[in-house]
Design goal:
Helix content is about 90%, strand content about 0%. Helix 1 runs antiparallel to helix 2. The two termini are about 15 Å apart. This is Putative membrane protein.
Length: about 50
């Protein structure tokens, strides 16, 4: 189905943002990483629930 392909690509793109957040922590010593990870996690959980 065409709609499921878009959902999977969104999930992959959002998972890539997790890598970006963690890289920002280790490379640039950013703060509020927990808040950013929680926000990204909520979005990913919402996408997974939408797929189910």
């Amino acid at each position: 189905m065409e709609g499921s392909r878009i959902t999977v690509m969104t999930l992959i793109k959002q998972s890539g943002s997790l890598v970006t957040i963690l890289a920002g922590k280790f490379i640039f010593k950013e703060k509020n990483i927990a808040y950013k990870l929680i926000c990204a996690g909520i979005i990913i959980i919402g996408i997974v629930i939408g797929v189910l």
